Amino acid sequence: MKNNVKKAIKYLLNNSTFFVILIYVLSVLIIAPLGNYALADDYYYLVQIKAFSSGELVRSALIGPTFLAQNFLSVAWGNIFGFTYLSLRILTIFISIFCIFMVGNISDKLGIDKHHKLILMTLFSFNPYFYSCSLNLMTENYFLFFVLSSLYFFLLYSSDNKSGTLFISTLLGGLSIAVRQYGVVLFPAYLLFYLIKNTHNYKFVDIIKITVPFLFIGTIAILWPKYSSAIEPKSISINLFFAPPKEIISKIFSADILIYVSYFLMPISFSSTGKLNKKTLLFIILIALPISHFIFYKNVFTIGNLLYLEGLQARLRASIRESVFNNILFKIFLSYLISLSFTIIVTITTSSVIRFLILKKKIIVKFIKNK
């Protein structure tokens, strides 16, 4: 008996995909997501699904995302297991499990070792936003279901070069637009990758296989009939895909963007510390403290949230600080990491500029002397 238990534990640890899925399922069973609507959105998503099942195929004006693929998927599920809120939440849990499974497959395809794969999958599965959305009817996890599946098949295509695999990938990518409009970003990414990879031997048929699913499914999803409402005028707008230029420019020239730059450059900045002496490192560690205080009180990501650290599903600004997902300890830690990254970048950049100016001065002096 003990040997069987040891073998089972060893198998799970060596198969991180199933291990993380098991932990996720156990956590869901502990939480026991019973009861009524977790969010206001859940109620009118459920009403919309029931309307579709009864033949009323015009979308509600209250729903911003395209929602179409999720709608039909939920109707198919509901026809078998019922249209109760609990039944459809169970569907979301299964969709979320499949998302975790696809992250594992993508990790394997990218050649990520098992230790880093375990960390990656755990962070993905228990990301506060992904985890909370796996227990309601929100569109985010359904959108990820199609995006991750599409990405997996596209990675398969990059190695086997089979047109069928490419078509499956773009078909799933097109369906992601039928959940949320932002799936459209996959189209230029796939097309650009294909053209770069096949610069001299591209096939027109393959370009059609990339273009048609996105264009056809996306057009249907976006132009699907929808009720209008003066109170909730969520009609078709180019702003569903692009922010207004004025808004983009104001954000680019905002000092807050330095927080984002420092965050995304952390791998580069931290790997550069090996070139710094101990006194410089100590200086950076001390200077980063007051800067991290400033970043924390700016609420970390002020322009747009990257990690959903605060205000998760808190509808009113007044309730943001009281949100159960307002992860104060992690925000303090992240603020300091970003502050360190910023300080390292500024220190290295400043010292590089000073060295360049000194070198330039020496070269000019030497040139004048030789002349």
Explain what the structure shows.
- The chain has 371 residues and is mostly helical.
- 68% of the residues lie in helices and 0% in strands.
- It is built from 16 helices and no strands.
- α5 (85-109) packs antiparallel against α6 (114-125).
- The relative contact order is 0.08.
- Mean pLDDT is 82; it is low at 306-325.
Number of helices: 16
Choose one word for the global shape: globular
Q: Span from first to last CA? A: 89 Å
- Overall mean pLDDT: 82
Could you state the order of secondary-structure elements as H and E? Answer: HHHHHHHHHHHHHHHH
Oligomer status: single chain
Q: Which key terms come to mind for this protein?
A:
mainly alpha; 371 residues; 16 helices
Structure summary:
The protein is mainly α and 371 residues long. The chain is built from 16 helices and no strands. The termini are far apart.
In terms of topology, how is this protein built?
Elements: H1 2-14, H2 16-31, H3 40-53, H4 68-81, H5 85-109, H6 114-125, H7 128-133, H8 140-160, H9 163-177, H10 186-197, H11 204-223, H12 245-252, H13 257-264, H14 266-271, H15 278-297, H16 328-370
Helix pairs in contact: 2-5, 2-6, 3-4, 5-6, 5-8, 8-9, 9-11, 10-11, 13-16, 15-16
